[in-house]
């Protein structure tokens, strides 16, 4: 139940971020994109860090200095569903007290609930629900990045999509664009902490 609540919370954040939906993509002016999301032109690695398929840990992404940092978490070595649930629980739980003391935070809102709606090959469809307060674009993109990078740290997951009541939900990309296309770790690499 806690896992489902955590999953739904993230999706509610994405859906309730105050960004209106639209039929066509629109360009966001560079001056309106928060500085941490614009990047500094430094090339980013082309592949995300993943854990070994036989490993009992995975990376859960949190926030440090408006960037995403992957921290290892122990997880069941059971099925992909068990590991997905554990990853969502870890996102919902947030950083430990020791991690918080080291400056690690989360953009994941308390009112957002995520649940695995479906798994299609290596794509995971997450259903979001719950209520969230109006949040900044930076917080929204960091939240989506936390979810995407954390779940794709599982070797059996390469893409994430979000739905609310069966309807696709657009997600904010680091460059400021909205997309309902499947999201990959590569989409959020510009947000990773060096």
From TrEMBL:
Sequence ranges assigned to domain GerMN in this UniProt record = 84-173
Q: Name one Pfam family in it.
A: Germane
- The identity of this protein, by name, is GerMN domain-containing protein
Which residue ranges are recorded for the region named Disordered? Answer: 22-50
Species annotation: Kribbella flavida (strain DSM 17836 / JCM 10339 / NBRC 14399)
PROSITE patterns per record: PROKAR_LIPOPROTEIN
Which InterPro entries does the annotation name? GerMN
């Amino acid at each position: 139940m806690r896992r489902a609540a955590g999953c739904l919370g993230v999706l509610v954040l994405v859906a309730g971020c105050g960004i209106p939906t639209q039929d066509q993509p629109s360009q966001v002016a560079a001056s309106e994109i928060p500085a941490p999301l614009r990047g500094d032109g430094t090339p980013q690695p082309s592949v995300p860090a993943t854990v070994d398929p036989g490993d009992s840990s995975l990376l859960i992404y949190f926030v440090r200095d408006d960037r995403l940092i992957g921290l290892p978490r122990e997880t069941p070595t059971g099925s992909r569903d068990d590991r997905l649930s554990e990853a969502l629980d870890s996102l919902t739980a947030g950083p430990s007290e020791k991690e918080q003391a080291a400056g690690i935070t989360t953009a994941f809102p308390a009112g957002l609930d995520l649940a695995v709606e479906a798994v299609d090959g290596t794509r995971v469809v997450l259903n979001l629900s719950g209520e969230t307060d109006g949040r900044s674009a930076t917080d929204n993109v960091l939240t989506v990045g936390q979810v995407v990078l954390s779940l794709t740290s599982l070797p059996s997951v390469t893409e994430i999509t979000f739905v609310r009541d069966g309807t696709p939900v657009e997600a904010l990309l680091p460059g400021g664009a909205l997309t309902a296309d499947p999201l990959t770790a590569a989409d959020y690499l510009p947000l990773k902490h060096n």
